[in-house]
User: Which sequence fits this backbone?
């Protein structure tokens, strides 16, 4: 493997195109939901022959971690760090992205809207207490407790109760089949009941305690997190003794710190790919993830209530060129709302053909032969090369007579405008679907009546409602694929691409990018 | 003097109230919804509404303002919506880091600036003057974030002399170890602070260099300088004992006025170097719309600004005998 492969992204340290990897992900996304029972757990006990211990591993976090109580935040960097301290029942396999039992030994849907989980025996929390079915019950009830006000509560809405069957078996009772329950589990942390009942929310925000591979050493909100190896870990003992995760918001500083050897791992932008790969001290590791990049239309603002205008704009934009130029060809072009890595993807949907002549013709047919003026709102940090891609869109639109001006917003502002349906007429958005890899988190949120939608699609709403009423994965797949077809035809967005999860990692470590945006460290070793 | 101080304190309270009101109005009238950041991507409108209610954001603006003002008078600056901790505790935890950086930047900038200003005035029109003018111009026109990144690339990435980010050991530990004869901790501290301090101090240094130079040039031609020289006093003596103290009045005024700019500059510098100060906390809070932290942060910055300016006012009395005489005559 050459570490100086300029212009190419090393997908999981392979200089070859990511075709094989992507096919693997496609297969796993489908496989993750074809069976309702899970077994063959992730084996965290595989020995790492010849690995040397790492005294200190430093990861620069790209956004602040204000709080480490899993029920008091929904911030990605906090979720990543919580996964070092807590263990989930189910986790995704890093190489296939398939959902696998983790704390759970096995799980299954046992009818009557009930899911049964069998927990591993002999697992202890950092305070020495046993992890049992009671801990699982407590954790799930804490998540859905209105008083706690977890930001994840809504996703767990179908859960009615949790019954302890025996010390290591638990039944989760739902009011519907709740087919996506396991997809939400990788970020469900299991708590020690005594510790999480006795302490205040303020205390727990700063002092997380779980059963994970690392235990808390020091946490300063929005500054730094230090964790130390849990030497009594039930699974594979990490090679890393201590992890330090300072927050560095500036991307230029993060890359400089990586190249200077001050940190070993961080998230990077496309413009840094070549620089990092040719540095001789670090390299890029990237993988198609779950984050789609789209430019949405607001159906309540003219002329975007006209389907033909929306379709014309899709024909006017060269997706392929944007992918090649701004993310070095590492993205996957979207033919519909669901990317290939997510369950519900429809492989028959092709990306809109780039054809400005056809776009102009369609625009004239829609009653706008001379184009019109519009606005695109963007939060550049929401996606790789956000500003550049928006600028490219403006240029494509100009070719068919549409004059678009760019309005740069901050995240809080644009989020508020979208959820109140005031954003637009056009706005850039990236969406990771809460790392569930399930269409429900995309179609159900971004289209029709979804909380983050500015479109009006009753047919899709009906399909989403039907998909939520069944646990049959084949049936769900069909419904989502149909919804994808409807969405492609209705063109609620300019379909752009699935962006990669890209990181810079020092050449001394073997960490590899994961599709689910998580950064578990127990398998990281020296190379 | 007491009456003067009382009047200044009264003005300060009005300034602080103005700052608190302004930041409240700007925050609450600007677009953006904290609820969206709190509950994340998949929430529904009902969930957003619930969060808004729990934060009191469903109340009319005047009611929110009165609640805020009432809490402020009681000394309650609220809790962070995202961290769940008291905003005062959070800011007080970060304040020493920001002060450490700004004071080091000022200690680096001020002596160099005064020396450069004096030298370039005395040797006006020489290469030394041109060089001093060029460095002042460079300092004034160079944005903090650019200079910071350039310094990181040169000293951390290329030369590998200094770390690219973060802060070194705690300053109290540095002092303790120095007393115990262990300079290693100090060196570690210095290695971390040198680049952020230069980044932050350069602009400050440039402003004071220009001001000192102008002031000294203005004084050089004054009759009292000629009298001192005629009485046989050396040129250096005149500058050191007569001109420099006189110039210090305007320099001190500028230092007071620029404290705000220095604290503002610290926000950018802290972000570039990952320095865990108050500025970075404010940026993160603004991004998330964590109103209580932003309000408390702005209020604390305004307080520091006002406090430093009162100190400067008091310093005038000692620097300028005319003020003392005026006070006595009054």
Assistant:
């Amino acid at each position: 493997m050459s570490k100086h492969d300029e212009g190419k992204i090393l997908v999981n340290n392979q200089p070859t195109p990511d075709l094989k990897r992507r096919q693997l992900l496609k297969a796993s996304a489908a496989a993750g939901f074809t069976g309702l029972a899970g077994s063959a757990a992730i084996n965290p006990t595989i020995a790492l022959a010849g690995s040397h211990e790492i005294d200190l591993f430093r990861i620069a976090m790209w956004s602040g971690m204000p709080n480490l109580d899993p029920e008091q935040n929904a911030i990605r960097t906090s979720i990543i760090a919580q996964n070092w301290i807590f263990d989930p029942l189910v986790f995704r396999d890093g190489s296939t992205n398939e959902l696998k039992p983790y704390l759970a030994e096995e799980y299954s849907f046992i009818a009557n809207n009930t899911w049964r989980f069998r927990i591993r025996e002999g697992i202890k929390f950092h305070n020495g207490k046993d992890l049992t079915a009671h801990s699982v019950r407590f954790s799930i009830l804490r998540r859905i407790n209105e008083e706690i006000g977890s930001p994840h509560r809504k996703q767990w809405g179908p859960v009615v109760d949790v019954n302890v069957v025996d010390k290591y078996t638990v039944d989760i009772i739902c009011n519907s089949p709740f087919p996506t329950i396991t997809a939400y589990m990788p970020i469900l942390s299991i708590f020690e009941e005594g510790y999480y009942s006795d302490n205040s929310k303020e205390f727990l925000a700063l002092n997380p305690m779980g059963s994970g591979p690392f235990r808390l050493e020091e946490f300063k909100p929005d500054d730094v997190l230090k964790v130390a190896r849990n030497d009594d870990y039930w699974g594979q003992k990490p090679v890393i003794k201590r992890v330090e995760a300072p927050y560095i918001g500036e991307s230029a500083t993060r890359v400089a710190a990586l190249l200077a050897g001050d940190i070993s791992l961080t998230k990077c932008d496309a413009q840094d790919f070549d620089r990092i790969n040719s540095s001789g001290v670090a390299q890029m590791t990237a993988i198609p993830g779950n984050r789609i990049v789209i430019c949405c239309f607001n159906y309540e603002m003219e002329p975007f209530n006209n389907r033909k205008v929306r379709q014309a704009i899709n024909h006017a934009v060269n997706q392929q060129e944007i992918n090649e130029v701004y993310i070095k060809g590492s993205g996957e072009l979207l033919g519909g709302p669901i990317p290939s890595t997510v369950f519900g993807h429809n492989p028959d949907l092709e990306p809109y053909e780039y054809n400005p002549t056809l776009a102009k013709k369609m625009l004239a047919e829609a009653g706008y032969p001379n184009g019109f003026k519009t606005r695109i709102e963007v939060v550049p940090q929401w996606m790789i090369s956000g500003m550049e891609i928006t600028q490219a869109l403006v240029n494509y639109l100009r070719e068919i007579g549409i004059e678009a001006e760019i309005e740069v917003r901050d995240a809080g502002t644009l989020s508020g405008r979208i959820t109140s349906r005031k954003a637009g007429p056009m706005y850039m958005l990236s969406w990771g679907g809460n790392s569930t890899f399930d269409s429900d988190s995309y179609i159900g949120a971004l289209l029709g009546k979804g909380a983050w939608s500015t479109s009006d699609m009753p047919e899709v709403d009906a399909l989403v409602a039907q998909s939520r009423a069944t646990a049959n994965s084949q049936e769900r797949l069909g419904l989502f694929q149909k919804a994808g077809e409807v969405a492609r035809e209705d063109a609620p967005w300019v379909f752009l691409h699935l962006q990669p999860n890209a990181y810079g990692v020092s050449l001394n470590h073997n960490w590899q990018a994961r599709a689910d945006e998580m950064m578990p460290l127990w398998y990281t070793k020296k190379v | 003097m007491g009456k003067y101080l009382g009047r200044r304190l009264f003005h300060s309270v009005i300034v602080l109230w103005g700052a608190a009101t302004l930041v409240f109005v700007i925050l609450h009238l600007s677009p953006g919804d904290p609820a969206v950041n709190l509950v994340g991507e998949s929430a529904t409108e009902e969930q957003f509404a619930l969060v808004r209610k729990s934060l009191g954001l469903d109340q009319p603006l005047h009611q929110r303002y009165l609640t805020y003002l009432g809490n402020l008078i009681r000394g309650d600056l609220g809790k962070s919506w995202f961290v769940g901790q008291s905003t005062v505790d959070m800011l007080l935890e970060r304040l020493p880091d920001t002060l450490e950086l700004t004071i080091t930047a000022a200690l680096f900038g001020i002596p160099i600036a005064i020396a450069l200003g004096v030298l370039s005035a005395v040797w006006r029109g020489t290469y030394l003057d041109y060089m001093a003018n060029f460095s002042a111009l460079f300092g004034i026109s160079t944005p903090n974030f650019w200079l910071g990144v350039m310094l990181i690339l040169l000293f951390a990435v290329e030369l590998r002399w200094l770390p690219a980010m973060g802060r070194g050991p705690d300053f109290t530990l540095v002092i303790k170890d120095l007393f115990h004869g262990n300079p290693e901790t100090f060196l570690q501290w210095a290695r971390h602070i040198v680049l952020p301090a230069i980044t932050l101090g350069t602009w400050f240094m440039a402003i004071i260099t220009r001001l000192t130079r102008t002031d000294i040039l203005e004084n050089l031609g004054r009759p009292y300088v000629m009298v001192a020289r005629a009485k046989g006093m050396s040129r250096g003596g005149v500058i050191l004992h007569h001109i420099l103290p006189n110039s210090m009045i305007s320099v001190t005024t500028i230092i007071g006025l620029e404290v705000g700019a220095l604290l503002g500059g610290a926000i950018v510098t802290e972000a570039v170097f990952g320095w865990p100060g108050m500025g970075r906390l404010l940026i993160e809070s603004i991004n998330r719309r964590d109103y209580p932290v932003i309000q408390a942060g702005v209020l604390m910055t305004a307080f520091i600004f006002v406090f430093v300016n009162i100190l400067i006012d008091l310093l005038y009395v000692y620097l300028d005998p005319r003020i003392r005489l005026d006070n006595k005559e009054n």
About this structure: Chain B is about 80% helix and 0% strand.
